[in-house]
Amino acid sequence: MGLRLLYLIFCRLLGCFLLLGRSTAANNAEILALRHEVAVLRRQIKRPRLSWADRAVLSALARHLPPALRRRRRVTPGTLLTWHRRLVCWKWRQTAVGSGRPPLPEETVALIQRLARENPTWGYVRIQGELRRLGHRVAAATIRRVLRRSGLPPAPQRASQQTWRSFLRSQAHTLLAFDFMHVETVFLRRLYVFFVMEIKTRRVHVLGVTAHPTGAWVTQLARNLLMDLEERAGCFRFLIRDRDSKFTAVFDAVFAGNGTAVTPTPTQSPRSNAFAERWIRTARAECTDCLLITGERHLRTVLTAYAEHYNGGRAHRSLGLRAPDDDPNVIPLPAAGARRQQVLGGLLNEYHTMPPRLPHHPQERTSSAA
Hints:
Elements: H1 2-20, H2 24-44, H3 52-62, H4 67-71, H5 77-92, H6 106-118, H7 124-133, H8 140-149, H9 155-160, H10 164-170, E1 175-184, E2 190-198, E3 203-210, H11 215-229, E4 238-241, H12 249-256, E5 261-264, H13 274-286, H14 296-312, E6 337-343, E7 348-354, H15 362-369
Parallel strand pairs: 1-4, 4-5
Antiparallel strand pairs: 1-2, 2-3, 6-7
Helix pairs in contact: 1-3, 7-8, 11-12
């Protein structure tokens, strides 16, 4: 702004020097033309906006005008007093402070949203108590306002909006997932594989293989599974299956007698049984799609060997890169060597650690020879 003022003063001084070389008649004619232009502009513009530098230049030039002309100018004594009052207000102005409490930090808001999403049954006061334990003092009304602004409903409504993914994660240790898998043989005959997966450990049991599955066959395999599980059968509280007609009422009654509730998946919703569907894709990509299956016996042998590999020799992302049968409390030591074990004729490979070889001492050899 200071440079603008200096530039305007320089331009006016240069204009004054140029006027000294002109005649009086030329100056009077230019003044009349400028007055008329100003009158035309005043009819079009009611209140022009002047900058601080424009006001300073007009104030300085207005002092040299005759009193009669000074009254007709926009820069009158009243205008100067108004400008002065504005300068005083600008000097002593203060930053406006909003009324009420200061806003919550973004970290606290994100923490409130996280607690509400991860705990659908927690109400405002429950979240308030958890925040206090973490060192944040926030009122329940503030938590309610934050959740409303984020589009999160109260606790009862959040709990009723539980998805299949959250249900499976929370109940994984008590879930069994049943499903069918079909395989085409080399003679274009379709075979059906009935299997079950323990969701928590990802352990798979291949129950049977047949070309004509029926409700009685499926029910008998369910009874065989409960006998094989023995005491562990009582740990499972929920069973997930689709709405296939082969899952009859007798099949559900077998698990109901064991205290296991049967949960059918929604119609045409394969993601509701995502763990079983994922195993089907893995088994096909790693096993059945790489072999030519000749019949039921061949497929049963192949899938039994693959299930043993899947449970005992294959790393899983969801299990921390461990196999389902690995002990999670055992930390393996660095192996001195690795031994390869081929599965299904070399289609799959398993690697096991080898104990370090003991050094041979020449003195022992000499004494033994003697």
